[in-house]
Amino acid sequence: MKTKKTRPSGKSKKTSPRTGKPASKKPSAVWDQAAQWYDALVGLKGSEYQKAVIFPGALQLMQLKKGDAVLDLACGQGVYSRYLSQRKMKVTGLDTSEEMIRFAQSRSDSSLRFEHADAQAPQALQGKTFDAVVCLLALQNIESLLPVMRNVKRWLKPGGRFVMVTTHPCFRIPRQTHWGWDEQKKIQYRRVDLYGSESAIPILTPPFAQSQSFTVTYHRPLQSYFQALTEAGLCVDGLEEWTSHKTSEPGRRAKAENRARQEIPLFLALRAVPWAD
Ligand SMILES: C[S@@+](CC[C@H](N)C(=O)[O-])C[C@H]1O[C@@H](n2cnc3c(N)ncnc32)[C@H](O)[C@@H]1O
Predict the structure, then answer these.
(1) What is the DSSP string of 238-277?
(2) What is the CATH architecture assignment of 27-175+197-250+266-274?
């Protein structure tokens, strides 16, 4: 299958959302700046969506046994690392942001290991292997998929599993998808303006108001994920689409809103395993 790429991953242009000028910051610097805001958002145990939907869903997909070694890739301030450690896994967290790693260490006990490295770097965690690698809500923040997937293949023990969760790339594309209301049919619908092109979308990270205070979301169509996984030697053996656990306050549109929330998934979860050599 051929991929139509208007902007190949790794060559996307980043611009400041305020100035429109090209942004020069490395991902580590971008996330260092956002670390305090993100830590306050997620806290010790996770955001509402993480606790209700993402954490238990990813745990089930990973099919772990007590004592398994798990790499929490792009672990942020370590919220899922702690969740897994409490369930008796041996956890290593890796993140490109020193500030995130600092928050992770300060919020976790010493049985958890945290490493500062770029998930795309071929030298990251050389010689280390794991029963599972998990990457939650972060691949969409990483510029190049293929080097990450090659590393994942290298890090997995035979029989190991890779589980990734992103906001759903078909329905949740920043600035390109929106809820709409059809008054005639009385339905809430999801409008998708652009899907097939890869793009880099700057996202302001409050409460930082300076012009360069933003992170970048890399939108990719589903086929980009499948291509990178396959090229790296990983085979998708599980796919789930998770909806929001929330419901609307009673009101005229509540029934339609709840139905739309259940019909149109919020998160995509993929599990992949190494191809047999
Ligand atoms: C939205 S946060 C998600 C953090 C965590 N997985 C969670 O669920 O709370 C995205 C994380 O990806 C990290 N990140 C971005 N680019 C990265 C890279 N190239 N290598 C490793 N981590 C990266 C950021 O530093 C940030 O901590």
Answers:
(1) EEEEE-----PPSSTTHHHHHHHHHHS-SEEEEEEEEPP-
(2) 3-Layer(aba) Sandwich (3.40)
Rounded distance between C-alpha atoms, residue 225 and residue 268, angstroms: 11
Give the CA distances from residue 101 to residues 121, 142, 162, in Å, rounded to whole numbers and listed in that order. 17, 17, 22
The residue whose CB lies within 8 Å of the most ligand 1 atoms, and thus the one to mutate among 53, 97, 112, is 97
Model confidence, pTM: 0.91
What is the reported pLDDT for 235? 98
What digits encode the pLDDT tens for the residues 56-80? Answer: 999 999 999 999 999 999 999 999 9
Q: Which among 47, 100, 165 is the best mutation to test ligand 1's pocket, defined by most ligand atoms within 8 Å of the CB?
A: 100
Backbone angles phi and psi of 145, in degrees to 5: -75, -45
Q: How confident is the model at residue 8 (pLDDT cuts 50, 70, 90)?
A: very low
